[in-house]
């Protein structure tokens, strides 16, 4: 059996053909020179790689580049970026196998997509549920409905400040983490390698055992509450009932199939309601796979799409995660979360960070680069559909039906941020004007011609035309420029 070269995001057993297959791991410093990493992502990846090197017949090669570390015939599973695939193809005697670590096979996706004009998550998700027989009772969806989103869009419970679910058990760092920390400090000091964000205790699994423990804990204690508050935000509870499993799944420590099976089993055993299990499975079998396939299905130029002609630069305070410069409570808290943990859940990414960037017309490619370097679970394949498509609408709607633009009213309904904020979500003009509310109307006004044909925006655009103070809103936003709100 040829030795299997595992990239650092292919660390679990499902990337091998047999448990005792010999493995090559490459720790390349050049990777950290090529692009900035969040300090905690650099730690997580190195820690995961070095922990993996202790399991079985593993050769860990420390090299400047991948190419110089490859010296024998190898097999490798299809990597997760075009650049890495190009590299593998150029190397002699490295056989590339189909991708693993996702649920739907590429030919199935291509067949599904080829039959459609519009690529929508809901259609793909139903296809995948049937194809893989997940949450199905015969030919029908379990519980008689495909989509329980209606039940899963609750505002956060008021008053408590946090959800009544146990937080994930803390990770206990070991001597490998200690060595990684020492090495990263040295690379920053002596080798000119720069990181984003702050260092901190490791929050996410670096080993298969840690990842399985987190999965078990999530399914037992947090999945039951996952559904209703999936879209809500609480200032005092960054995790809420989210799984925090994306870094472990993206490192390949967990197979998405086993994660989905665990959630379905909990539902079938009566330990989790359908809304929670369905909502969670939709994220993995649906969204995660959809986003992965779109990365390969769309042409490489999709990454640079810019249908709304957004050309603004990211201001320094945002690029450098300077949360202390921000007074808007939601944005300050979310930016601090990115700086201090490299992770916030889906709604802060989409509706606080992405929404702010899109309202201000920042260049989508730069926003995608920012997400890629600022998050512990950031990978190139995740950026295109999530950032370029969904959050910036830079593809003009190839994968979503409308831009995810929202004003302060949405943030007020779905979070407890506005209560303690110096801005008022209802106010558009003046010292108390909420930057999201003013930004929302400014965005609609700027793009009215492109968005006029979108029936989902008919009412907001009618509202825009009735705004008596639109000129004042636009003038105020011009004056704000790129200053932190
Ligand atoms: P949960 O809410 O518990 O969801 C379960 C799992 O579903 C996640 O672990 C993840 O594996 C998967 N998932 C859900 N939605 C998506 C999605 N849209 N794309 C891919 N996987 C999904 N996810 C990343 O893994 N890496 C990223 O760099 C990333 N960047 C994002 C940027 C933007 C602007 C947006 C809108 C979303 C991004 N996502 C990204 C998707 C999603 O926000 C995260 O997967 C999720 O917040 C991770 O937290 P969790 O594990 O607690 O997720």
TrEMBL record:
It holds the Pfam family DPRP. InterPro entries: Crypto/Photolyase_FAD-like_sf, PhrB-like, Rossmann-like_a/b/a_fold, UV-DNA_repair_photolyase. SUPFAM superfamilies: Cryptochrome/photolyase FAD-binding domain. Residues 147-156 have a biased composition (Basic and acidic residues). Residues 141-173 are annotated as: Disordered. This is Deoxyribodipyrimidine photo-lyase. It comes from Actinoplanes ianthinogenes.
């Amino acid at each position: 059996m040829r030795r299997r070269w595992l990239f650092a995001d292919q660390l679990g057993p499902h990337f091998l053909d047999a448990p005792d297959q010999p493995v090559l791991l490459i720790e390349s410093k050049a990777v950290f020179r090529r692009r900035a990493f969040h300090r905690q992502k650099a730690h997580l990846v190195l820690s995961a790689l070095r922990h993996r090197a202790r399991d079985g017949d593993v050769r860990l090669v420390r090299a400047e580049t991948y190419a110089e570390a490859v010296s024998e015939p190898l097999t490798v599973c299809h990597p997760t970026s075009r650049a890495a695939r190009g590299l593998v193809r150029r190397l002699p005697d490295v056989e590339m196998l189909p991708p693993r670590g996702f649920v739907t096979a590429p030919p199935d996706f291509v067949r599904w997509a080829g039959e459609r004009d519009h690529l929508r998550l809901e259609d793909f998700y139903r296809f995948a549920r049937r194809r893989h027989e997940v949450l199905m009772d015969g030919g029908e969806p379990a519980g008689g409905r495909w989509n329980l989103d209606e039940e899963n869009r609750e505002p956060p419970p008021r008053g408590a400040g946090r959800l009544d679910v146990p937080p994930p058990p803390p990770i206990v760092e070991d001597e490998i983490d200690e060595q990684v920390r020492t090495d990263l400090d040295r690379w920053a000091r002596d080798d000119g390698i720069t990181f984003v964000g702050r260092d901190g205790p490791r929050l996410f699994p670096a080993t298969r055992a840690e990842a399985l423990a987190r999965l078990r804990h999530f399914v037992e204690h947090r999945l039951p509450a996952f559904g209703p508050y999936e879209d809500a935000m609480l200032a005092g509870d960054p995790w809420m009932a989210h799984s925090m499993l994306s870094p472990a799944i993206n490192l390949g420590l967990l197979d998405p199939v086993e994660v989905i099976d665990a959630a379905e089993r909990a539902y079938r055993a009566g330990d989790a309601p359908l809304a929670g299990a369905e909502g969670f499975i939709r994220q993995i079998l649906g969204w995660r796979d959809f986003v992965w396939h779109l990365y390969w299905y769309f042409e490489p130029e999709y990454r640079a799409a810019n249908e709304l002609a957004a050309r603004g630069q990211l201001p320094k305070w945002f690029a450098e995660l300077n949360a202390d410069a921000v007074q808007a409570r939601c944005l300050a808290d979310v930016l601090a979360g990115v700086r201090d943990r490299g992770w916030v859940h889906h709604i802060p990414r989409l509706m606080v960070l992405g929404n702010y960037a899109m309202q201000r017309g920042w260049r989508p490619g730069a926003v995608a680069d920012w997400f890629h370097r600022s998050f512990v679970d950031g990978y190139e394949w995740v950026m295109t559909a999530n950032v370029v498509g969904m959050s910036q609408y830079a593809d003009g709607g190839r994968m979503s039906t409308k831009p995810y633009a929202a004003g302060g009213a949405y943030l007020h309904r779905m979070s407890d941020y506005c209560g303690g904020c110096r801005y008022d979500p209802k106010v558009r003009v003046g010292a108390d004007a909420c930057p999201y509310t003013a930004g929302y109307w400014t965005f609609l006004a700027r793009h009215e011609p492109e968005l006029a044909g979108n029936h989902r925006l008919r009412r907001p655009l009618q509202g825009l035309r009735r705004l008596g103070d639109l000129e004042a809103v636009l003038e105020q936003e011009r004056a704000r420029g790129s200053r932190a709100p």
